[in-house]
UniProtKB/TrEMBL annotation:
InterPro entries: Cyt_c-like_dom (IPR009056), Cyt_c-like_dom_sf (IPR036909), Cytochrome_c-type_DH (IPR051459). It comes from the Bacteria. PANTHER family: ALCOHOL DEHYDROGENASE CYTOCHROME C SUBUNIT, BLL4482 PROTEIN-RELATED. Residues 1-29 form the signal peptide. Pfam families: Cytochrom_C (PF00034). Keywords: Heme, Iron, Metal-binding, Signal. It comes from Paraburkholderia youngii. This is Cytochrome c. Residues 86-173 form the Cytochrome c domain. The keyword tRNA processing does not apply.
Amino acid sequence: MREPVRFGASKSKTMRALLAWVTASSLLAGCSSSFDATRDAQSAAAAQARWRSSVDAIGKPVSEADLSAWNIDVAPNGHGLPDGSGDVATGGRIFAAKCAACHGAKGEGLIGDQLIGGAGTLTTANPKRTVGSYWPYATTLFDYINRAMPYNAPQSLSADEVYALSAWILNRNGIVPDDARLDAHSLAAIRMPNRDGFVPDPRPGKL
Ligand code: HEC
């Protein structure tokens, strides 16, 4: 049988050794002269300058035109929506050609999400979170389609096409009438059914 290890004794020995080392090293640190500190700062600045010039040598400055191609965010209040417009009937034709294969002819969902229906289900045992039943802002629909759809060819649609698709999806969800034509102004003015269904999360640091 092995002797039980006596933690108490060996632990305090280790602590003493550690304390001696810490004291010794802080004394040594106190010895470094201000000359060394200046030299260290100078060589750090030189290294920083070398790094900066090597970075500056890569690529070319980004132009406003390059930036604007990426700057496509649409805010909930409609800020960032482009010029253009589209109506429900046109949207229906584009949907059949470019979206129905994945989302179903009526937006009922296939390999892509259900986009239409689900109204009134959020408080039931089987909630259906669709654009119509769940999304708080119609402007997000424009942003999402414009940015990410069709899934196989994102950012291939014109602003007019995205307005038309938004009009058709909102119409089939009973949110805009059959003769609706949407543009930056009218899209931002839409009040979605679940607009007040979200609350801010008060927990600090939580998403
Ligand atoms: C190749 C299949 C495919 C095609 C075509 C396609 N989608 Fe999608 N769509 C998807 C998938 C998959 C998702 C889910 C993506 C995810 O969650 O990351 C999606 C998500 C969406 C959503 C978000 C739904 C939600 O509730 O989160 C919208 C809106 C949408 N698509 C609209 C369209 C429109 C409009 C078109 C036609 C221009 C289109 N999609 C074409 C596959 C497709």
